[in-house]
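#struct-pred

JT: dropping the chains for the assembly here, can someone run the whole complex?
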Amino acid sequence: MTALKTPPIPEQRDFPSRLHHPRVAARVGAWLGICFFIAFATGLISHLAQQPDSWLPSRPVWGYRLTQGLHVAAGTACVPLLLVKLWTVYPRFWIRPPRPSRELLLHVAERTSVGVLVAAAIFQLATGLANVTTWYPWSFSFRSTHFAVAWVVIGALVVHIAVKLPVVREALAAPVDQDEPPGDGLSRRGLVRSAGIASAAAVLLTVGGTVPWLRKVSVFSVRSGNGPQDLPVNKSARAAGVTATATDPAYRLDVVYADQSLSLTRADLLAMPQTAAGLPIACVEGWSAHGDWSGVRLRDLLDLVGAPRGSAVTVSSLQQHGAFRATHLPAQFADDDLTLLALGLGGEALSIDHGYPARLIAPNRPGVLQTKWVSRLEVQA
Amino acid sequence: MRTRLLLGALGVAVATYGGWLLLQEDLSDLVDTAVWLAGGVVLHDFVLVPLTLLLGLALVRLLPANLRAPVAGGLVVLGTVTLMAVPVLGGWGANADNPTILDRNYPVGWLVVAGVTMLVVVVTIVLRAGGRSGGPGARGR
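RK: done, full complex below.
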């Protein structure tokens, strides 16, 4: 009787390429770590900015545009780096565990931490890349899950650095090609360079959605930058279900503070002193664009109902459904001279997809909180 | 060693906080999250990496020695950038009422990226060949 031959389980020595080496892993890993930390820090800023009672300042005007652009760019840069890094260390996946002993326990602990790190890192990049294209092939909430797993990635990464510190130190102390066996294929230096070039290319090919002069180069950018009045749109009037109410002549803006209230038509608003402000729309999905807005200073409207400075405002939209139909505008934004109830964009009346008859535009705010089709401003007592 | 232990403890605390945040989700969302967490690793470790290893083996078998390094470098760049571009190439996030999203011709963009990568690979091969046969100053590899 002949036994059925099962293919042998590979072992680390079955991957003889000279590229599977700590000197490669440490270099690619260092860049990967830096990109993950940038994405984490800027992600925290974005999370804070979206808290209803955010204490983040309203300046600099371009703050959120920069941090969220960096967030998506750093995450995008991670994709080639993570793939090359994991490929480099892949043979370690097949290391046999030691015999039962204290070493086995350490081995299992380390493998678990690496497993968590890899799963969470792939998860963050995959969900982030899908979210940027507004594609949600899952049931969980993107924002809260991406936020939670970010802590898992960074925690597991810090553990990984703690475990690997001596290896990394030694690997980085020597040139990448020291003691490299000769060969015809890609060299270690070649692989590290290819990973760096791929990472830079990934950023260049996508970042045009937020860096206008790179638009032509960024063939994989989710936004070309085109749109009504030269500005992309995140949620159209039709998707928000406001096409009828936004164009209804019966439209009124209600401004309410305690027992004071005002009801204004768009013509009333246009008759008030108009302010111009050049402010970016900076979306959580990482795209951003500059707009030249005109409209009534929000603070002027609050003055009409006698609201004191330092008051926060609830801004409600004509939109009946959706998480952002009403937003909370903290006092530092409500009091900023550049915060407008915008009526015009680029010298024309606001297009309906940009929030006609009136929208909020404030400096240094995530785009989702720049409420469109505003129907009510209620000052918080 | 003490620094490393402290760092390790900090990492465990931070990751645990993330896990606690995850546990605030509804059970069905949690299951979906777990599927995505595990699915990424399974796809990577048991599909993507074996495919890459096979491709590497094919390169070694099929290509003459002097072409392997530039071609492999080009494939690293094109392969990883292509994976990064899967969501835009697939266009699943496109939205009929919002033509300002996913409003480029991404397949043509990919062809341009592939063409430029190939061009760089070919130029590298030609330069290397020239360097090798180019008289006494040539550097042998």
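JT: nice. Chain A touches chain B through 85 residues (CB under 8 Å). The mean pLDDT of chain A is 95.
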